[in-house]
Backbone:
């Protein structure tokens, strides 16, 4: 794979306080003064946001506001976008993710991602889930792998539906099942953070409810960040919410406060449907 | 941006203010029936109250529909909740006016008894706070709402004064006991109207400032 065309201006150019050790143990990932440029487009401007452990953080805002851009920063998915430039600092447990000793593959194992459209590999259901543990050497023998696959599919709420057809192709499942398969695949490598980019946007209400239930169940085990356009979904599944507009982080706080008494007029206008 | 929800809110507010107008009118009519010893007017109050009940049912249905179909949040949600809570208060004001009208009808059938000045003053205060609380709602005016809240203690004191006056009258004139007790009950009903105006004013503060100030003093003392 070609070297990503990403230039980063990190650590040394940032104000000193950004290097202070994390004082809040509840914080799993921390973005400080993050800017993202796609060519001339300044897509994200000086954003500082914490992703907390054992909680779901919802990133909301109108299209093009920068929420998915920030999500992709957390596991360096923007590295793969030609012309993308990221400045500022992102820490995972105090460790800069752009630092020299952070292997990007290892980072993505620790910070998993579920995409808008379910994208199972063209492989058997079993192999979809076993793929990550295999390449990361998490299973020494077949029985270890069996255990990981069963545990991951169970956590993803899919085991009972597929346990008798693990050799069937993953893309033969329904849309909702495929998305849960992708979640099982993401958690099979035992990540610490799970990023979800509009995971329900292509699903019907029943499948959406299953995924939301799943997010609720998973939140005690992972730090979860979810991008969603569905305000009610953000209100239902998250404990913290961050509102973005035109590349700026406008407001962040406990979800119950954002949805009952937002401090910023722009947040209020957006969540009440006055614009966006 | 104009939203479909704006017309829903406008409809809710319109119905609530109509209900508020009816509540003010029915209270006024029940008091006129009392002052003027007019049994026919007292009878009309019962009929007028049915219209208030009908509006409450319409508002209940519209609120349920707004919550289910529009899922409002933030200030929209507070306003919808406030409409529901205020409608409940206004319906009770209608019931209280009905009770006052019953006393008026009984009073009209008996020889006239002078009304204590404190009672007429209490009635004016109750009508004023009800009107001002509805004005505060229609303008989402937290300052006016707080002015309504400030009047509640004076209304309570006015009620106590009527009760004391009527107790002394009872001692002097035990033969008119049923009328004197009726006037004590009217004072109680007017004091309750003041309480409902207070509730409405608290709801206005919730809508305007996202602050729940209900029972604030009592809860602060119990800390």
Residues:
């Amino acid at each position: 794979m070609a070297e990503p065309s990403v230039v980063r201006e990190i650590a040394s150019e940032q104000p000193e306080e950004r290097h202070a050790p994390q004082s809040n143990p509840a914080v799993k990932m921390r973005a400080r003064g993050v800017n993202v440029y796609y060519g001339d487009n300044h897509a994200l401007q000086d954003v500082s946001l914490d992703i907390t452990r054992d909680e779901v953080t919802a990133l909301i805002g109108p299209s093009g506001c920068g929420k998915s851009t920030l999500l992709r920063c957390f596991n360096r998915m923007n590295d793969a976008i030609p012309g993308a430039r990221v400045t500022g600092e992102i820490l995972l447990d105090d460790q800069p993710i752009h630092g020299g000793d952070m292997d990007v593959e290892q980072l993505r194992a620790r910070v998993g991602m579920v995409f808008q459209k379910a994208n199972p590999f063209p492989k058997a259901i079993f192999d979809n889930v076993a793929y990550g543990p295999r390449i990361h050497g998490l299973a020494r023998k077949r029985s270890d792998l069996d255990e990981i696959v069963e545990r991951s599919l169970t956590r993803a709420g899919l085991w009972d539906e597929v346990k008798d057809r693990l050799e069937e192709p993953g893309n033969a499942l329904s849309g909702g099942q495929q998305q849960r398969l992708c979640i099982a695949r993401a958690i099979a490598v035992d990540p610490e953070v799970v990023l979800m980019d509009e995971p329900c946007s292509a699903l019907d209400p029943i499948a959406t409810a299953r995924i939301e239930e799943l997010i609720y169940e998973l939140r005690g085990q992972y730090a979860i960040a979810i991008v969603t356009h569905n305000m009610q979904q953000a209100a239902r599944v998250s404990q913290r919410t961050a509102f973005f507009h035109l590349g700026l982080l406008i407001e962040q706080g406990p979800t119950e406060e954002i949805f009952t008494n937002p401090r910023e007029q722009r947040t209020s206008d957006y969540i009440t449907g006055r614009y966006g | 941006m104009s939203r479909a929800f704006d017309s829903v809110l406008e409809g809710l507010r319109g119905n609530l203010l109509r209900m508020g107008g009816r509540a003010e009118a029915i209270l006024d009519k029940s008091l006129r029936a009392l002052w003027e010893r007019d049994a026919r007017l007292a009878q009309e109050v019962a009929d007028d109250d049915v219209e208030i009940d009908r509006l409450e049912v319409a508002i209940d249905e519209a609120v349920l529909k707004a919550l289910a179909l529009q899922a409002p949040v933030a200030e929209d949600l507070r306003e919808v909740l406030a409409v529901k809570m205020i409608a409940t208060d206004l319906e009770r004001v209608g019931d209280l006016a009905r009770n006052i009208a019953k006393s008026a009808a009984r009073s009209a059938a008996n020889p006239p008894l002078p009304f204590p000045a404190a009672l007429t003053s209490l009635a004016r205060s109750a009508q004023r706070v009800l009107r001002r609380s509805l004005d505060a709602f229609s303008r989402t005016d937290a300052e006016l709402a707080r002015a309504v809240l400030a009047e509640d203690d004076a209304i309570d004191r006015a009620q106590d004064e009527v009760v004391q006056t009527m107790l002394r009258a009872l001692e002097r004139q035990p033969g008119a006991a049923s009328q004197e007790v009726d006037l004590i009950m009217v004072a109680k009903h007017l004091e309750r109207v003041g309480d409902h105006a207070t509730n409405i004013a608290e709801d206005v503060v919730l809508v305007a400032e996202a602050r729940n100030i209900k029972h604030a003093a009592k809860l602060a003392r119990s800390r």
